[in-house]
Amino acid sequence: MTPELQQAGAEALQRWRQKEQVSASSGGRSASFGRLVHAHEPDFAHGVALYLDDITVSFDGFKALNALSLAINVGELRCIIGPNGAGKTTMMDVITGKTRPDLGSASFGQNIDLLRLRENAIAQIGIGRKFQKPTVYEQLSVFENLELALAADRRVRASLFSRLSGAQLDRIGEVMALIHLLPEAQRTAGLLSHGQKQWLEIGMLLMQDPKLLLLDEPVAGMTDEETERTAELFLSLEGQHSLVVVEHDMKFVEQLTEGWKKVTVLHEGRVLAEGTLADVQANEQVVEVYLGR
Amino acid sequence: MKRDRMPEVPALLDVKAVLDPATALQEASRPRLLTPAGWGGVLLALAIVAIAVPLANLVAPVDSVFHLSDYAVGLIGKIMCYAICALAMDLIWGYTGILSLGHGLFFALGGYAMGMYLMRQIGRDGNYASELPDFMVFLDWKALPWHWAGSGSFAFQMLMALLVPGLLALVFGFFAFRSRIKGVYFSIITQALTFAAMLLFFRNETGFGGNNGFTDFKRILGTPIATASTRMLLFVLTGGVLIGFFLMARAIVTSKFGRVLQAIRDAESRVMFTGYDPLAYKLAIWTLSAVMCGVAGALYVPQVGIINPSEMSPAASIEMAIWAAVGGRATLIGPIVGAFFVNGAKSWFTQVVPEFWLYFLGALFIAVTLFLPNGLVGLAAQLRRKKKDVAE
Amino acid sequence: MRGLRHLLLIGVLYAASSAHALTALQTRAIAEGDTDGRVAALGDAAAAAEPGLATFVQALLDDAVKLTPTQVLVVEGDKVVDAASGATTALPSDAEDVVNNNRMRGALQATLASLRLLSPERGARAAAIDELGKQATDEAQLPLIEKAWASESDAALKAQLGRMRAGVLVASSDPAKRMNAAQALGESGEPAVKALLLERLADGTEPDDNVRAALRQSLDKVSRRLVWGERLGVLFTGISLGSILLLVALGLAITYGLMGVINMAHGELMMIGAYATYMVQNLFRAHAPTAFDYYLWAAVPASFIVAALVGAALERSVIRWLYGRPLETLLATWGISLMLMQSVRSLFGAQNVPVENPAWLSGGVAVMSNLTLPFNRIAIIGFALLVLGGVALLIARTRLGLFVRSVTQNRRMAACVGVNTARVDTYAFSLGAGIAGLAGCALSQVGNVGPDLGQNYIVDSFMVVVLGGVGQLAGTVLAALGLGVLNKVLEGWAGAVLAKIMVLVFIVVFIQKRPQGLFAMKGRSAEA
User: What angle do CA C5, C9, C10 make, to 5 degrees?
Assistant: First the structure.
């Protein structure tokens, strides 16, 4: 071991550390031309999970979305508020592939063009959606609902011959405990209360382990206690997952934003205001169209 | 298909789940193929089909009370073929929510495949003593058309009985499901499909016997077709196939695949947003059901001795739907019961009071949709539950 | 036949000669004796072109001639005249009827025709030409035709005679004459001429190449003239079928499009309307036979009302319990259709029943030589448009229409604002059923009426609804007309069965691109 070799070794270590640092801050990939980008995995190198650019959707002349532009960062919890008809659900439809916009682009990470994928492909790529009206499989049990949502091989042959592994069983149990439906494992989902159905749907979303969660009025019809628990759950998910929450319940939004997170206000298909909840609440326009005095 | 009435299930407080989550989960994840009672039923059915009926028909003396007439054997064999179709309908309608009003087409195609083989087996014993089937001689054809090329071989025709309905179902299903045609529109289009096929087969030029179809069979696999032993063999085979298909269907619906199908029936959009491709699942079960009907058709023709295009009529396919509905959708055993009930009634009516059969059938359609959404099996379960409630 | 031609020839050759009256001998020779002798005598008389011959021949054909040993008498109304002198006499008791066998009748008629060809009346000449044209002509008749053609003053009749002449000459032994004839035939627009040209062009018939070339040219010219007739004919039949499909599908579009009810008994409601028409027809025939031609004015409202009542009964008893469950409705209405068919069979029998067109609907208007548009089909097109207009007005402008639209779009909200949804449902369904009845009435005028009437159209009408899309009448109209025309065009090309199959495939492919049909309700449709 000569001093030169020691020096070379130290420098190599330094360079490796630097590279690691850079990759850690950019989602695990170094920002160079030589990095590999896979078609089925979103590239979060620049820290943005979802881009919406100038999305325009019109139904028979009525513009549901009017040049909407939005960006959600990786690990962010964004709240979207706005009056009815502002285009919040339509925006989710566009992101999940249910509606094709007339103009504009939408991408998941840097590389995945959402407008070219079908719904199930978008779901497999890591975007999960919870509907306004709880859509669970009414005739199947809670357990079966969650089992179907499990992130696993979605193909026909796999379904015919699949058996749940221990780890998968554990995961289902874990989520069931999280959504407080463990005692109801065998109960038919159609018989659950409204709030329990909402929780089941959230649980199904969690089972998919998505990178981006789209939640459309997740606490509609829930009691105060359930609302609080939901807020806790979402806050725990923040960071490892990106969340977009559309809500009308201002108290819930307050709990989620904790005073410093960004809130977006939609109105007539475009972004009216963006900022912390306090800023938005002070904005004259927002007060006029939505919040009221 | 949305069921407006939820099945009445007593409050299930799973004590085990609270005390021991792991076991409860284990049990929930591996539903059994059949309960012990179920297995008992299957064995009983097998015994009846393979032992009791042959004895009753072949061994018991004609005047004994245990004797089962040839006519009865033929009738039950025919109804068992229909029961296979009803089972297929349950898989696509009861479990996946796809109402097909054209499955009679697949049944008839399987039947025609077998019929072609049987027509060739007549050999020179037909009316015209020619190598060609009678209807071809009548039409003044000099040689077999191209689609009769393999009809001399039993194996080939049996393969056709599987492949032709299967391929047609695959192609039609692919285009129909891909365009997301759903619900009533889909049902109407299946009806139009079978109607068009029926018109096609009515033409003599199509080469399938025109409106007379195929009949007057003499031999199957070398043995004469009208003997008691051949009939019994076919009967036992049909029964075995029915039981086999039942077990297969049971395996399908208890697997994850079956649950995805039910999910597609109840909330297709959520299924898509969970990452499944409903097209692949629907197509798989659709094609399977078509192949099942094709097999049923192939077993049907040697037992009834005739096949003609009226088997493809929309009315015949709609009747298949009512067998499943009467018995009870999404139960597998229900449609089999339904097929026996409706066809048994048909046989009785058409012999005793034929003018009233259509009234009865029409009333059955109305009664089942209005009053018996869960069919006879559902009704039985309801009565059993009521008795249990009263007892408690 | 040679005898007849002989007659015609002679008749013409001596037609211009001076007129003699029929003598008693001549009349007796024509009226009495064996057929050969009589035909010969007739020929002689025609050759001499006796002026009274035409009336005498007509009298013979009318069986108005009687014989006594001394006289030949003709009965004219209540008078009895002597055939030769024309003097009125009394009818003796020993007068026998003159009997004409078929051969004699044929000879008498041919003579009459040849005499009429040169008659001073245009009408008589036109009729004679038509009759001549119905027979196969050959060279023996050529002089007659040439004579008539030469002396014909009327342009149209002259053209007809000219064609007939060319038709005969085209088979002449002289190639030059054949050439002229071939060229002359090219001016025609008759389908019969086209058939004749094709016949001449068949292998082996025409030896001369130049003449063949001329024939082919003429064939092209005639075909081109005819093809317009054929195309328009297909178009008309297509529109006619489309109008029928429209009537059938309109009721279905209302019950399904506006109410979401799939009614498999729709065909049977049509059948009920058709049978109502049949009953009204019988009533008129039994109690008001003079007004029979007007029975349709009563049948149209009758079929509407009867079908609407049956529809209302169905809706109240069965269908109202099945709203929101389209697949169940489908099955239940299929059951109803079985019962309706069977009850009609029990009441009226399983055979078709005859429904006659009233006189003003029979026949047609000949628009072109090969295109006759039947009146009943024209009437149905008009009727369909009327019904369509009526329904559109009803839905768009009346209170009932407003209620129906509101119940369709949001049942709960409509109930909240006080609309009696149950009654609106019944009205709307009855309307759809009534229109089906009208369709049945229309169908009774163009087709057979039997218990299976509904089954023939049910698949087609569903296709119209699937293709046209739900919620707007415009889609139904376009789809009905489009499918009708498409069906007929393909039929002419590939036959009825293949045409139906192709239409079905087309619809499935079209639905791929546009699952909601031609005109669809846009926007965020309820997923449930």
Answer: 120
Identify the pLDDT of residue B9: 40
Report phi then psi at A105, rounded to 5.
-140, 150
Task: Give the Å distances, CA to CA, from B388 to A188, B11, B38, B376.
Answer: 21, 14, 20, 18
Q: Name every chain C residue with its beta carbon within 8 A of the beta carbon of B191.
A: 459, 462
Q: What are B306's strand-pairing partners?
A: B215
Each residue of C182-217: pLDDT tens digit? Answer: 777 777 777 777 777 787 777 777 777 777 888 788
How far lies A74's CA from each of A108, A203, A240, C25, C37, in Å?
Answer: 10, 21, 8, 125, 118
In a domain, C279, yes or no: yes
Rounded to the nearest angstrom, the minimum Cα separation between A201 and chain B is 10
Which positions in chain B touch A173 (Cβ < 8 Å)?
Answer: 21-22, 25
- B20 — contact with chain A (CB < 8 Å)? no
CATH homologous superfamily of A41-291? P-loop containing nucleotide triphosphate hydrolases (3.40.50.300)
The residue ranges of every structural domain in chain B are 69-313
Strand duo A77-81 + A263-267: pairing:
parallel
* Within a domain: C94: yes
Q: Percent of chain C, pLDDT > 70?
A: 88
Q: What was the ipTM of the complex prediction?
A: 0.86
pLDDT in tens, A220-229: 888 888 888 8
Supply the pLDDT for residue C494.
Answer: 82
Q: Which chains touch A (3 or more CB pairs under 8 A)?
A: B, C
* Cβ-based neighbours of B144, under 8 Å, separated by 6 or more: B132, B136, B151
B108-167: per-residue pLDDT in tens? 999 999 999 998 888 888 787 788 888 888 888 888 888 888 888 899 999 999 999 999
Ranges of beta strands (E only) in chain A are 48-59, 62-73, 77-81, 103-108, 112-113, 127-130, 212-216, 242-246, 263-267, 270-275
DSSP for A202-250 reads HHHHHHH--SEEEEESTTTT--HHHHHHHHHHHHHHBTTBEEEEE-S-H
Who among B3, B259, B284 is closest to A156 (CB)?
B284
> Which of C76, C93, C117 is the endpoint of a domain?
C117
Judge whether C20 lies within some domain.
yes
User: Looking at residue C191, what is its pLDDT?
Assistant: 73
Instruction: From C102, C117, C132, give the residue that closes a domain.
Output: C117
- The mean per-residue pLDDT over the stretch B225-239 comes to 91
Specify the range with the lowest mean pLDDT, choosing from A196-210, B156-170, C451-465: C451-465
Question: Is A59 in Cβ contact with C523 (below 8 Å)?
Answer: yes
Structural domain for C91, as ranges: 2-117
Q: Is B180 on the interface with A (CB under 8 A)?
A: no
State how many domains chain C has: 2
> Is 80 exceeded by the pLDDT of residue C132?
no
CB C408 within 8 A of CB C259: yes
Q: Which residue has the higher pLDDT, C374 or B109?
A: B109
For residue C469, what is the nearest residue in chain B, using CA coordinates? B185
* Closest A-chain CA to C520: A60
pLDDT of residue A30 exceeding 60, the answer is no
Q: Would you kindly state where each structural domain of chain A is located, as residue ranges?
A: 41-291
SS3 B223: strand
Neighbours of A20 (CB within 10 A): 11
Rounded CA-CA distance B40/B37 in Å is 5
Tell me the pLDDT tens digit for each residue of A6-23: 888 888 888 888 776 666
Confidence of residue A32 (pLDDT cuts 50, 70, 90): low
What own/partner pairs with CB < 8 Å and gap ≥ 24 does A122-125 have? A122/A95, A122/A96, A122/A97, A123/A96, A123/A208, A123/A210, A123/B272, A123/B273, A123/B274, A123/B275, A124/A40, A124/A154, A124/B275, A125/A40, A125/A41, A125/A42
